[in-house]
Every structure is written in C-alpha cells, then in structure tokens.
Amino acid sequence: MGKIFDIGFMIQSVPEILTALPLTLLLALISAVIGLVIALFVALIRYFNIRGLSQICQVYVSYIRGTPMLVQIMLVYFGIPLFLRALNVYLGTNFNINGVPRLVFAIIALGFNAGAYMSETIRSSLLAVDVGQLEAAYSVNMTVGQTLMRIVIPQAFSIAIPPLANTLVSLIKETSLVFTISIIDLMARAKIVGARGYRFFEIYVVVSIIYWVICTFISRLLAAAEKGSRKHERTINP
Asked: Which tens digit of pLDDT belongs to each residue from 31-44?
C-alpha cells in the first residue's frame, strides 16, 4: 500500500511546477498594464460624464463585474476568432486566425477584466480629491489637463495604490483559469505533474503555497510602494 500523503513527491515536484511561474507572472503583468490603461480611460470618461461614452463604460463595468472570469475567457477565446473570420469575409482578407497564440486571448480576457475593476478604483480615487483644489487650480488659469496631471492624478494615484494592489493579486490568482484554453501556466503544470503520479492533493497543496508566497510578496512590495508615495504628505496636528 502506498503512502497516504507523500511529502517527498511534493518536494520533488516544486522545481518542475515553478518552471511555469514566469509565464504566470508575465500574463498577470501584461494584463495588469493593459487593464490599467483601459481603467484610466474608462475612469476619466465617467469622471467627466461624457455623454454616450459614459453609459457604454457603465455597461462594460457592470457586465464584467456580473459575469464569471471563466465565462469571459471562453467568450474571448471563441468570440475573437469568429469576429476575425467575419472580417476576413467582409474585407476579403486571408488573415490566419489559427496562428493567433492562445496567450493573446488570455491577455485580452484578463486585461478587460482587470480594467473594469481598476476603473472603479481610479474613478473613486479621482472623486476623493477635494473639489476645492480643482477650483483653486482653475482660479489660477490652469487648464483641465494641467489640473489633472499636476493636482488630481498624483493624489488619486496615491489613494488608489492599495485597491489596485488587491486587483493585481486577484489577477495573479485568476491566471489559474487560463489552463482551460490549454495554456501551461502554474495550475496547468501542477495538474500535469499531479496526473503523472496520481497525487493530486499533494500537488494542489504545493501550488496553493506557491500562489500564497507570490501574492504575499507582491502585496508587501506594493505596500512599500504605497508608503513611499505618501512620504511627502504632511500630517496635520489637531
């Protein structure tokens, strides 16, 4: 009878599972950058309440927040090839749809998901800046762009760091779903190793510890960044 819980198998599996770590981090990082760009545009559109676009952004945020991440990945994975096929037919082009890497679909899905959540964070941070500061900036003939870049965004960014850090940590964990479209990330590598030895519980313990260590490290890193961004703030004594 074999061992009920094989610690030796767990330890031996760690190096092989970690070979997928760079891909997981790359996925999360690129998706976070894309999400941040989307979030900034969406937040500014809603902050200035641009008619038409603001309503579209509201629907986008509501849809992403109201549907599971796995469903969004599937929609992107199966939907974009259909869209490209339709474009080929309409434009008479011959774009190789099968040549699009699966990684691209994963990054698009994760980026749009992160963008929706980050946009709410940035929008609330923009709204948290005192209106009096905007009025003071306009009173000295600063333009809207100058007011945003010099006064509003630096303060909003400082406020937004903790929730943005939470979104990044969530994004790292959500990359574990991309194995459903045959991307060999940490989770997929763990499943492959687990299947080889029929030791799934041990492998899931290992991969959970890896995710935990990574997320804890990044949380502390971003907490230090937040502390650094606030070092120039003055405290007001009562």
From this structure: 999 999 999 999 99
- The answer to whether 141 and 80 are in contact (CB under 8 A) is no
Report yes or no: 120 and 42 within 8 Å, Cβ to Cβ.
no
Distance between CA atoms of residues 223 and 217, nearest Å: 10
Specify the CATH number for 7-235; select among 1.10.3720.10, 3.30.450.40, 3.90.76.10, 1.20.140.10.
Answer: 1.10.3720.10
90 vs 150: CA distance, rounded Å: 46
Please tell me which residue, 127 or 226, carries the higher pLDDT value: 127
Query: 72-104 burial, b for 16+ CB within 10 Å, e for fewer?
Result: bbbebbeebeeeeeeeeeeeeeeeeeeeeeebe
Q: Is 182 exposed, middle or buried (0-12, 13-18, 19+ CB in 10 A)?
A: exposed
pLDDT tens sequence across 145-166: 888 888 888 888 878 888 888 8
